[in-house]
Amino acid sequence: MKSDSKFVVIVVDMQDFFLDKFTNDKRNILIKNQSKVIDFCINQKIPLIFLEYKDRGATTQLLSQTSGDSPHVEIVTKDSNGGFTNTNLDEILKNKGAKEVILMGINASGCVQDTAIGALNRGYKILTSADVIASATKRDGNLTTSKKWYSQKGLFFESVDDLVGYIKT
Fold first, then answer.
1. In the prediction, which pLDDT does 69 show?
2. What integer pLDDT is reported at residue 169 of this predicted model?
3. Minimal CA–CA distance to 84: which of 48, 63, 112?
4. Do the bridges between strand 48-53 and strand 100-106 make them parallel or antiparallel, or are there none, so unpaired?
5. Which position among 4, 12, 74, 86 has the lowest Cβ density within 10 Å, counted as fewest Cβ atoms?
6. What structural domains does the chain harbor?
């Protein structure tokens, strides 16, 4: 891993309530790709935060099972789109010495982006890839707008393998 970086992964709103807006194929691919990152992070002891929208259920069991009983996983409940609003997310990131935040989840142009903006405003570098975020909106269903935004504001990778490769170096 990069010696000058301290990574933390934030998984945004991967709750069945939101996942039900996607086809089974899209949902399964998204979960499979996110599981690759989670597996790598668990093995490397990189902290994971499941950011869950209040009253929308827990993170989908398919992802929470991947993380198992790892002591490096925390759950933060939010009551608005941005993960930093009315939560202790910034405090958790500071306590973990985070410098770079890897964002995964849904909706890329909504809650994930609002959380990314919160991270940027607090001095964190943001990273994501095309196959670990998704959007259910007609406006950005193919991620065209999101890809451009994430590329301009942080590091954007076309594949989960490229993202994990970056973390490894």
1. 66
2. 77
3. 112
4. unpaired
5. 4
6. 7-168 (3.40.50.850)
H or E segment at 55? none
Q: Of 72, 125, 132, 77, give the one whose Cα is nearest residue 98.
A: 125
Average pLDDT, the chain: 89
Joined together, the tokens standing for residue 55 give: 């009253």
Distance CA 2, CA 15 (A): 31
pLDDT tens digits for range 61-79: 877 776 666 667 899 999 9
Its sign, for the CA torsion 119, 121, 125, 127, is: positive
Residue type, 54: K
Q: Is 128 left (phi over 0), alpha (psi -120 to 50) or beta?
A: beta
Structure tokens belonging to residue 8: 């933390």
Listed as ranges, residues in the chain with pLDDT below 50 are 1-4
DSSP string of 74-113, one letter each residue: EEEEESSSSTTTTSSHHHHHHHTT-SEEEEEEE-TTTHHH
- Cα distances (angstroms) measured from residue 59 to each of 55, 100, 164: 11, 22, 22
Residue that is written with structure tokens 């994501």 in the block: 128
